[in-house]
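Section 5: illustrative case.
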């Protein structure tokens, strides 16, 4: 039976995947870079997103993330800037969709790293995660994961206990992110080898996702600032 440390690590991996895997602007950037420039570029782009999470982790560790929650105008500015960046990156993704995309798995491209880092630092999803779940994970304590399940909670209480604030949980969190940024570009390229038109379709879909989120965040952030 897994120890409390092992369970905390596995729970951290799941939290990391929950943070990294959902569809959204960040995965759109990773997807566009992957199909346009190869696995290395996609992985490096994912690293940029993870560095943004490291920054938020450090800020949350020192209690500075809460400043964003207490300053609506500052948060509005961040959301607006994030929306503008998404719209700007959407233009690049549309251009990639129109171009003839050739895999360049052997050559990395650092542009994706800086794009993802800039977007990550202004991405409302990542900010919200570290304001809520991230802060809870850093607070030392014990979390009985199954205790609050309906009907079976009393029976399963104590079966899966996670140590919040533990090194195992936090290492697992970033391990889960690494698993995603390794596997996601690889899965895209594997699918792309089977379907000739896959790369332009992914780039086009990424552009639409970025443009859609960009417009929503731009107007939402602008409304908060004004």
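Designed sequence:
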């Amino acid at each position: 039976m897994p120890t409390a440390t092992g369970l905390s690590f596995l729970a951290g991996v799941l939290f990391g995947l929950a943070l990294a895997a959902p569809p959204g602007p960040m995965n759109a950037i990773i997807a566009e870079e992957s199909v346009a420039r190869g696995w290395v570029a996609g992985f490096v782009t994912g690293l940029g997103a993870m560095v943004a999470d490291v920054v938020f982790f450090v800020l949350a560790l020192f209690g500075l993330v809460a400043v964003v929650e207490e300053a609506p105008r500052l948060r509005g500015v961040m959301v607006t800037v994030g929306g503008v960046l998404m719209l700007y990156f959407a233009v690049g993704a549309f251009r990639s969709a129109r171009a003839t995309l050739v895999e360049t798995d052997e050559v990395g491209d650092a542009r994706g790293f800086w794009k993802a880092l800039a977007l990550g630092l202004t991405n409302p999803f990542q900010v919200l995660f570290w304001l809520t779940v991230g802060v809870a994970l850093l607070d030392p304590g014990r979390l009985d994961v199954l205790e609050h399940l309906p009907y079976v909670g009393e029976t399963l209480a104590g079966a899966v206990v996670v140590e919040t604030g533990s090194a195992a949980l936090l290492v697992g969190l970033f391990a889960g992110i690494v698993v995603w940024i390794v596997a996601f570009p690889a899965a895209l390229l594997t699918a792309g080898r089977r379907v000739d038109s896959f790369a332009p379709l992914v780039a086009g879909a990424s552009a639409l996702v970025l443009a859609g989120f960009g417009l929503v965040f731009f107007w939402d952030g602008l409304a908060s600032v004004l």
